[in-house]
Design a protein that fits this description.
The chain is α/β, with parallel strands linked by helices. It is 37% helix and 25% strand. The longest helix has 15 residues.
């Protein structure tokens, strides 16, 4: 049986309809599909198509039965603030990531507390070359690992204790990396975003220099966005995150050429 359009469906063109959805979301923050079909006088199928396109454009995030505005972050939490957030999830992500690293590999650990959790599972490895822009990661590995260590250098981002900018990126681009583990304070279907422009060349350099690019990030960072799109999701090979990632996000990622590893 062919699905019938709503009798008023042609009243608005898609761009007008989607602008009205945004207007409603700015007033409500979250809205159901049933409420949208009533307000806009269109079918469920039309609303679902609109929401999917808008999510792909980074304008909103779909939730069960509806949609919400993507949360915009204006600045990243400090290293100290992040260290106490979602510690169990980060440890599980780090353990899973460490298990993927083959013997004698050159790996990159991006700045962040998830990378710090990962390196805590590398203490018994002495066969690796570990590259990082994170001073805390390198400091931990100096004390607990016999692997070869390379710090990227670069402009010092004091709050997050990392090296950023083009100087750090140049170091990364001079290397051949087997696996680049990339962290994020915000990510969505478009990709990894950041409020700090200095982090963009670093993450882009990791993508270029690495044979495998893996996002390591807990699910609380999903459906958040920031000013700069650093790495589109389709430039990654895989994602390691926790099982709290929404069913809708899992389904959307499954449509991409990405391996999703839930811990």
């Amino acid at each position: 049986m062919t699905a019938k359009n709503h009798p008023h469906e042609a009243a608005l063109i898609p761009a007008e309809r989607r602008q009205q959805i945004l207007n409603l979301l700015t007033q409500r923050e979250i809205i159901t599909i049933n409420e949208l079909t009533t307000a806009l006088k269109v079918s469920h199928m039309t609303i679902r198509r609109d929401l999917q396109k808008m999510e792909e454009d980074g304008l909103l995030t779909q939730v069960t039965g509806g949609a919400q505005l993507s949360k915009r972050i204006l600045s990243e939490p400090s290293h100290l603030q992040k260290e106490t957030l979602n510690a169990a999830q980060k440890d599980a992500i780090g353990r899973a990531a460490a298990a993927m690293i083959p013997p004698h590999a050159c790996i990159y650990l991006d700045a962040g507390t998830t990378s710090l959790a990962l390196c805590r599972h590398l203490g018994d490895r002495d066969d690796l070359t570990i590259v990082s822009n994170d001073f805390e990661v390198i400091n931990y590995l100096i004390k607990h690992s016999s692997s070869t260590l390379i710090h990227t250098g670069g402009q010092v981002q004091k709050q997050n204790r990392s090296g950023i900018g083009t100087l750090a990126a140049q170091t990364i681009l001079s290397l051949s990396i087997d696996i680049g583990f990339i962290s994020a304070s915000s990510w969505e279907l478009r990709g990894i975003t950041t409020p700090d422009s200095g982090k963009v060349p670093v993450k882009q350099a990791v993508v270029k220099a690495s044979r495998q690019r893996i996002l390591i990030c807990d699910s609380s960072k999903y459906a958040q966005t920031a000013t700069y799109l650093a790495v589109p999701l389709n430039e990654l090979n895989g994602i390691i995150t926790d099982r709290a990632l929404s069913d809708h996000a899992q389904k959307m990622i499954a449509r991409m050429d990405l391996k999703l590893h839930l811990v």
